[in-house]
């Protein structure tokens, strides 16, 4: 079982940046593809960005060119660098494997507002 702990969210103005982190327990973290997901208020959870065990990345169209996913297998951590943030990026952000295998963590709230 892998446990996931997200951090780094907060309140940021439109156009600003944030870096999210997801720390994963378990010795086999490096074997999994990982993803960042988000759930905007009143909406379904959606995949934002994904990274394979080999480091290949993929992004949802609505974040391409603004968000960057990366991973550090030595630290069992996956990151999401977010820039040029928009109000519609407001959501709770979660990480999990991609495809999803494990229970969701508590997520981290990102609020983009002036």
Explain this structure to me?
- The chain is mainly β and about 110 residues long.
- It has strands spanning about 5, 10, 20-25, 35-40, 45-50, 55-60, 65-70, 75-80, 90-95, 110.
- The strands form two sheets. The chain has a six-stranded mixed beta sheet with strand order 2-10-9-4-5-6, with no helix packed on it. A four-stranded antiparallel beta sheet has the order 1-3-8-7, with no helix packed on it.
- The radius of gyration is 13 Å and the shape is globular.
- The model has no long low-confidence stretch (mean pLDDT about 95).
Gist?
It contains no helices and 10 strands. It is mainly beta and 114 residues long.
Number of helices, counting only DSSP H or I runs of 4 residues or more: 0
Question: Approximately how much beta-strand content do the residues carry?
Answer: over 45%
Low-confidence stretches: none
- Rounded to an integer in angstroms, the radius of gyration calculated over CA atoms is 13 Å
Average pLDDT:
95
> Strand count, sense and closure of the main sheet?
6 strands, mixed
Secondary-structure element order, N to C = EEEEEEEEEE
What labels describe this entry?
mainly beta, 114 residues, 46% strand, 4-stranded antiparallel β-sheet, 6-stranded mixed β-sheet, globular
